[in-house]
Amino acid sequence: MDTNALFNIGYGLYVLTTRHDGIDNGCIVNTVLQVTSTPLQIVVSVNKGNYTHELIKASGVFNVSMLTTETPMFVFEHFGFQSGRTTNKFATCEAEHRAVNEVLYIPKYTNAYLACHVSQSIDFGTHTMFVAEVLDAQVLSDKPSVTYDYYQRHIKPQPEINYDNAKNGKRCWVCKVCGYVYEGDELPDDFECPLCKHGKEEFEEIIVETHNVASPKNDNNTKIHETQCVAPLQNNYAMKQINLTENIFYVGVNDRRTELFENHMELPNGVSYNSYLIVDEKVALIDPVEAIFIEEYLFKVKNVLQGRKVDYLIINHDEPDHSSSIAAVIREWPEVQVVGNAKTFAPLEAFYGTIENKKVVAEGETLSLGKHILQFFMVPMVHWPESMVTYEQSSKIVFSNDAFGGFGALNGGIFDDQVNLDFYEDDMRRYYANIVGKVAMQALKAIEKLGGLEINMIAPSHGLVWRTNLAWVLGKYTQWSKQESEEGVVVVYGSMHGNTGVMADIVARGAAEAGIKEVKVYDIAKTEVSFIMSDIWKYKGVIIGACAHYGSMFPNMTLLTHEINEFKPKDKVYGLFGGMSWSGGGVKTLAKCAEEGKWNLVAESVEVKGAPIREEDWDKLYNLGKTVADAVKG
Ligand code: FEO
User: Fold this and answer.
1) Which ligand 1 atom sits nearest the alpha carbon of residue 273?
2) Lowest-pLDDT choice from 177-181, 320-324, 427-431, 582-586
3) What's the gap between Cα 419 and its chain centre?
4) What DSSP string describes 147-202?
5) pLDDT digits 0-9 by tens, 612-628
6) 15-52 core/surface letters (b: 16 or more CB in 10 A; e: else)
7) Which residues touch 577 (CB under 8 Å, ≥6 apart)?
8) Mean pLDDT computed over 346-358
């Protein structure tokens, strides 16, 4: 039997209060149920060990105060982690709020209370179920009730656990209520947590597993994974906010853990998932973040909102590096309206299920938040068919999602005038070449469309926020979209035993002596393809070499040639070379790729038997580099 199944029962959380002989006390309970309407009766189950149980037995009266999702952790600690036998839980009560039965109810962090009188009690061994008549009932607020599941996910801090002993093979159990860790071969049946006094049933064994950070975060109360050791998030902590304007905030996150973007592009400098919050009469959250950062993200959003809720969630783009936290955002603010265009919701619901509260906006349509007016413009295929940008009219900020984005986590500097752009440009171009480059024409159209707007700031969903060097970033994007190559030659080779690598050096020498200062040589087995594609996008000359491999070419080269023919970079001149081992195949296969991709071959291909140790081979390779270089120079 898996008793975790019981956690799926939809419990709420309540403060159960009572009063006897002048003593007020209360505790947290999760089992309250209305059983009849006429007469109006409820039942509540209380552990016999609780002091509150003892007092209810004696007084026959109690109140149920219904906690909301805004209840801070200290309320649960105050009523749940200490006993009224040793602490007067109402000693610092600022004002007495008593119901008709003279029992205190909790006026703050609650949305209703019930004043009750016990009519019968049923003994269930460890617990007593009190059946009670409801004497009075009052609604206190319109905040949603907290559920046990919500408490586990969003209120209870993740316990800070030292995993070292568990990693070293020791058996350890963690208290799911307070995080206390017990070490020992078995947890005794009568064990009671020394911190919060909960029993063995609230403990689970720590099983340390290392897993891919891209895997979904596990639900609470199952296994605790190593990558889930985030610091506890205190929602009442006032963190310094990052302002784009007085009421527009940056709430994005940095990712330095994911090794491969879209699971195939290396991230040596990380990446950021940017999100923005506009606080007005209505609150809009623009593009959420990758779901593995949901805890940090919600913390940042709540830190700005200080108790307000999100009214609109703007989805400029469906790709999961932004949208994968949408379910968590909807769970957090169930009334939020999800805003997208006519193409947004079919893919989104295919990923995450039905979205009940959605709003479809059209090209140029506006959405008022109060003083801030959002306007939506479609930019299909930058990066997916549903891609759009959101323009905020009063601040003149464009929230451009993937467009104008770049790789690289934000290292303190959020804005373009806070960093060295020369350092950042390579990461931005690599992002462009491998993600937006295939749809360069659509990117150009998007730039032209935005050209009609007055823009003070460009706020993409990856990389820097542009507020000073707008002309620089627009110029770079226009250059890359128009595919205006720079003077330079990329030599990339695949070599099993180094001979084709030696050939590459001779080719590069020919290009350099022809006057090309930017010659980039890459070993395809050592450098991930996205970096090479980035330089191919930048430079006009491309010379590719591959040794033979079973009648075909060095296998790693296949991905690069595929990417070239997929992305079709323009304004290039190509050359080919390679070693033939016993029967050749490298150059022949490259030539086939060149034919399929209509590469502009400007020099005769060079195929060398064995190593380049003969003068005629050396000359042919050198001249290959020189000829391509001459074509680059025009
Ligand atoms: Fe950053 Fe296409 O998602």
Assistant:
1) 1
2) 177-181
3) 24
4) BHHHIIIIISPPP----HHHHTT--EEEETTT--EEESSS--TT-B-TTT--BGGG
5) 989 999 999 999 999 99
6) bbbbbbeeebbbbbbebbeeeeeeeebbbbbbbeebbb
7) 493, 500, 503, 504, 507, 543, 544, 545, 587, 605, 606, 607, 608, 621, 624
8) 93
Token pair 């957090």: residue: 332
Q: What is the pLDDT of residues 474-533, one digit of tens each?
A: 899 888 888 889 999 999 999 999 999 999 999 999 999 999 999 999 999 999 999 999
Residue 430: phi and psi, rounded to 5, are -65, -40
User: What b-and-e string marks burial along 99-135, b requiring 16 or more CB atoms within 10 Å of the CB?
Assistant: bebebbbbeebbbbbbbbbbeebeeeeebbebbbebb
| Closest atom of ligand 1 relative to the 435 alpha carbon | 2
**DSSP H or E run through 256:** none
Structure tokens given for 450: 């935005």
Who's near 98: CB < 8 A, 6+ residues apart? Answer: 104, 105
Q: The whole model's pTM is what?
A: 0.62
Judge whether 523 and 470 are in contact, CB under 8 Å.
Answer: no
Atom of ligand 1 nearest to the CA of 387: 2
Query: What percent of the chain is helix, strand and coil (3-state, nearest 5)?
Result: 30, 30, 40
Instruction: Tell me, using a 6 A CB cutoff, whether residue 295 lines ligand 1.
Output: no
Residues 6+ apart with CB under 8 A from 604: 620, 624
319 touches ligand 1 (CB under 6 Å)? yes
In the three-class reduction of DSSP (H, G, I as helix; E, B as strand; rest coil), residue 389 is classed as strand
Residue 231 pLDDT class (50, 70, 90 cuts): very low
Give just the sign of the alpha carbon dihedral 397, 401, 403, 404.
positive
Q: What is the CA(455)–ligand 1 centre distance, in A?
A: 22
Q: Which two tokens stand for residue 53?
A: 């149980």
Q: Is the pLDDT of residue 248 over 80?
A: yes
Which atom of ligand 1 is nearest the CA belonging to 402?
1
Distance from the alpha carbon of residue 318 to the mean position of ligand 1, in angstroms? 8
399 C-alpha to center of ligand 1: Å?
A: 13
Provide the angle, in degrees to the nearest 10, between the axes of the packed helices 470-482 and 440-450. Answer: 150
Q: Which atom of ligand 1 is nearest to the CA of 383?
A: 2
Please, which residues have CB within 8 angstroms of residue 39's CB and are 6 or more apart in sequence?
133
Q: Is the pLDDT of residue 210 over 80?
A: no
> Which pLDDT band, with edges at 50, 70 and 90, does 227 fall under?
very low
Say if ligand 1 is within 6 A of residue 317 CB: yes
Please name the amino acid found at residue 78: H
Cβ atoms 248, 277 nearer than 8 A: yes
402 within ligand 1 shell (Cβ under 6 A): yes
Report the alpha-carbon distance of residue 332 to residue 150 in Å, rounded.
Answer: 9
Check pocket membership of 176 for ligand 1, CB cut-off 6 A. Answer: no
pLDDT band at 235 (very low <50, low <70, confident <90, very high): very low
Closest-CA residue, ligand 1 atom 3, reads 319
Query: Which residues sit opposite 23 in a β-bridge?
Result: 20
Structural contact between residues 453 and 419, judged by C-beta atoms closer than 8 angstroms: no
Task: Please give the radius of gyration of the chain, using alpha carbons only, rounded to the nearest integer.
Answer: 32
- Amino acid identity at 175: C
The one-letter amino acid code at 502 reads V
Q: Which of 242, 244, 340, 238 is nearest to 288 (CA)?
A: 340
Using the 8-state DSSP alphabet, how is residue 4 labeled?
G
Helix 557-567 with 529-538: angle, nearest 10 deg: 40
CB-ligand 1 contact for 322 (6 Å cutoff): yes
What does DSSP say about strands 61-67 and 14-20: parallel, antiparallel, or unpaired?
antiparallel
